[in-house]
Amino acid sequence: MSDSPKRVFVGPLVQCSIDRHLEVVENAAIEVDKDGFVISVTALDSLPSTEYLKSNNVTILPTGSFLVPGLIDLHYHAPQLPQAGTNLHIPLHDWLTTTTLPLEAKYANTQFAETVFEKVVKRTLGHGTTTAVYFATKHRDSAKILASCCIKAGQRALVGKVCMDNKEMCLCTKESLCTCTETTTESIHETRTFLEEMVSLTKSCNSRVEPVVTPRFVPSCSPHLLTQLGSLSQEFNAHVQSHAWESDWQVEYGEQNRNGRDLDLFQNHNLISKQGTVFAHSVHANDSEIKQLAHHQIGVAHCPLSNAFFANGIMPARLMLEAGVPVGLGTDVGGAWSSSILDSCRQAVTSSRILRDGVGKLRGARNGPCSHPAEINHVDAFWMATVGGGLALKKKIGRIAPGYKFDALVVDVHAPNSNIDSFDSLVDTIETKFQKFVYLGDDRNIRQVYVDGICVLDKQ
Amino acid sequence: MSDSPKRVFVGPLVQCSIDRHLEVVENAAIEVDKDGFVISVTALDSLPSTEYLKSNNVTILPTGSFLVPGLIDLHYHAPQLPQAGTNLHIPLHDWLTTTTLPLEAKYANTQFAETVFEKVVKRTLGHGTTTAVYFATKHRDSAKILASCCIKAGQRALVGKVCMDNKEMCLCTKESLCTCTETTTESIHETRTFLEEMVSLTKSCNSRVEPVVTPRFVPSCSPHLLTQLGSLSQEFNAHVQSHAWESDWQVEYGEQNRNGRDLDLFQNHNLISKQGTVFAHSVHANDSEIKQLAHHQIGVAHCPLSNAFFANGIMPARLMLEAGVPVGLGTDVGGAWSSSILDSCRQAVTSSRILRDGVGKLRGARNGPCSHPAEINHVDAFWMATVGGGLALKKKIGRIAPGYKFDALVVDVHAPNSNIDSFDSLVDTIETKFQKFVYLGDDRNIRQVYVDGICVLDKQ
C-alpha cells in the first residue's frame, strides 16, 4: 500500500542466529514499521517486481553492500576518550592518579563535557555502534549532557552517572581537595535526581536513551550506597552496570573487605535488575558463578583489549557462551584505545587463541594447553557484538528479525580508500566479504547507520 | 648554497634511540643529500631565517605534523593478501590445503601476480611501510614481478622466491598434480636464475630492491637444498630469510626429522648471511639460542598477530630485546589479517601484557606471573618497527640520523576523517600525539612517505 508508513529494505543480509551460526540471506526483503520494528524478513528469489517497488517504500541496497545488525558496545567510559591511546604504559595506580581521575574531574565543567561527549557519540556511531552503554562521571549535569548528545545523534544508549563514595579509594593528592569521590548522601541524591530528570529528558526519543544505575565497582562504593542504589534501580525500573571480577586486585578487595565476591555482593544489595544488568569484564568468575550468570541471565561485557592491560587474565569467552551467559562486547575506552567494536571482535578472537594455547612453554609456569575449549571464531565474536549485547540488555536488538528494532549497518567492503582489499575473482561470496569486514573493516566500510529504523548516519 | 642538490626538512622529529628511548626534537632541521642520505640533524631554537630558507631547498612540515622514520615490515607473504582476514577459524592443515596453497599456486599466472602485487605494495606503502621483506611464491617470474612493483612504487624491499622441495610437505590432493613444491634441481636452478636476473632488474633503483634467499622453512626443504641455498647466498652476497621456531609442530619436526633445532640447522647449511638473516617468529627459541641470535646479530621478525593463531605461544619480546637480539616486526599477512605495522605494534604491546600476567588462574594449568619481565611499551614496539628492523637487515634505516637513509613518514594526527580524536587543550605535547599515532593511527594519518629521500606517496 503506497500510503503505508511501512518501509522495505532489499539486499543481502548477514547476521548471527541466536545459537551462534551465521545466517546469510543473499537477497532479503526486510519490512520495517513506522516505529522502527522489523515486521518480516523474506528471502527473495529475485529482485522485487516494478509493481512491488512502486507500491512500497523500498530501499534497494547499493550493489556490493550488505546489511548487518548494528553493533552494541556494552562498556565505554565516555569521559576517557581524550586519553584513549595514551599513558597505557604506566602502572595502574599512576594511570588512575595522573591520567584518568584528573581527567574525570574536569567534567564538573559542562562545556568541557559537551565538547568531548559530542565527539564520543560521533566516533562510536561512525564505528557502527548503534547501542552504547556508557559510564559518564560522578557529575549529574555532565551525564545528562552525554544523554542529550546520544538523543541528538540518534544513538541508542544507556547512560550512567557514576557512583563512588568510598574515600579509601580516593587517589587525590589531598583528601580535603578530593575530586574523585562523593559523599554517600550526595551520591544517592544525585542518582535519584538524575533518574528523575532522565524521565523527562528522554521522553521525546522513543526510549532510545535510558539511565543506568552505575556503582563504579565494589571497592569504590560503601555497602550503604550499594543498598540504596539497588532500591533506586527497582524503583525506577532501571538497568544496572558495574565492573565485576576484573582483576586479581578487585576480587581480593571484595573477599577481604566485604567478605564476598562480586555476584554475591551485588545480589545482596538488590543490584541484579530485572531490566538487565551488565557486569564489565568478569574475567575471574569461577565455574559456579558462571552458572549463576547464565541462570539469572546477567550480561557480561567482554573487553578483551583492556583486559590485556588491567585484568591479569583472559576471560574464557567460549566457556561463558557455552554455559549460556549473555556475553556482549565492550571497547572499554580509555582502558583500551579503540572505540571500535570491530577491534573488540578481533581481539576477542585473538585472545581466545592465546587462551587456548597458553603463553608458551619456556621460562614461565604456564605449560600445556588450556583445560577447556577456549577458541572462538569471527562468528562468535560478531554474535557477542550483536545478539549477545541485545540479550545482555534484554532488548530486542542485535538481530534483524520480526519484533526486533531495525538497528542496522549498510556495509560496503569496496568503499573508497577502505582498508579492505577485494579480489572478486577469488573472494566472491558474501560470507568471505563478511569475514573481511570483521577482521579488516573500519568506519570507512560503514556506509549507513540505522537506529530504530531511522538513518542516523549516511556517508553516501 | 642554492645550487646544492641538498634538501632540508624542518619540523618536529620523533623516533627511538638505538637504546630504546624516545627522542623528540621539537624543531629539527634535517639535511639530506642527493643520494637520500641524512647529512645532519640539528635542533633549532626557532624557525630558520628567511635567508636560510631562500638559500636552501627547504621543506617546512605542515603545522601539527611530525616526522618519524619509515616503518619496516620484516615478514609479509605477498601472495596471501587476497586471503587476508578470511578462513582464520579453520585448522592449520585445512587452512593450508583449502586456502593458502591453492592461492599460492595461482601465481604461476604472472598476470594474476601483477594484479595482486600492485595492490600489496600500494597497501603496505599506504600504511607507512618504507621497507618490506617479502616472501613471494616458488614461481620465479612472479617473484620478479613483485620486485618490479616495489621498484615502480619506490618501496625499499627484499624479495624472495620461495624454495620448497620436500614432497612430504605437499598437501595437494594428488602428489602427481602437486602445485606447492618443486624438485630440488628446479629449486636451485630457479633461485640461481632469480638471483642473476635481479642484478639487472634492480640496477636502476639505487639498490632499494634486492633478492633474499628464501627457504620456506626447515620442514619444506631437503638438507641438500638448504646447503645449495647457503652457497648461493654466499656467492651472491644475499640476505637470507626463513621461518624459525614458529610452533610446537615446527620445532618437533626439526628435532625428530633433522636431528636439530632451527639455528643449528641453518648454521650447518651456511644459511646465516653476513648481509643479514631474518628468522620469522622465533617464539620457541630457548635461552641459549637467544644468546646466539644476539651474538650473531641474527634478525627476528616478531609477528604477534599471527603468533596468536599459529604459534602456540607468545614470543618473549622484552627478553629478546634485553638480550640484544635485533628484533623487528612483521605483519605476516595472511597468517594475520593486517598489512599495517602499526597493528603489529599494538598487538606486540598487548601480547606482552598477556605474557606478563599469563592467561588466568582458573581452569587451566597456567598460574602466576611470567618468570621474567615481559611487558613492553609503545616505545619498544616502535623501536622494533623502525630501529630493530634496520638492525635485523644490517641497513642504515629505521632512524633519522647522519649516515642513515632518509626513509620517513610525515604524520598528522589531525588528518581529516582520521581515527584519532585530538583534544589540544589536554593533549598538546608531541609525545602524546605520537602515542595516539602508535595506538590509534592508520593510513589516514600518514600524509607523506619518503624512501631514499624521494617522496613516493603524497596525500596532501
Automatic annotation (TrEMBL), chains A, B:
Keywords: Hydrolase, Metal-binding, Zinc. GO terms for biological process: guanine catabolic process. It comes from Rhizoclosmatium globosum. This is Chlorohydrolase. One of its GO terms (cellular component) is cytosol. Signal peptide: none annotated. Its cofactor is Zn(2+). Residues 66-453 form the Amidohydrolase-related domain. GO terms for molecular function: guanine deaminase activity; zinc ion binding.
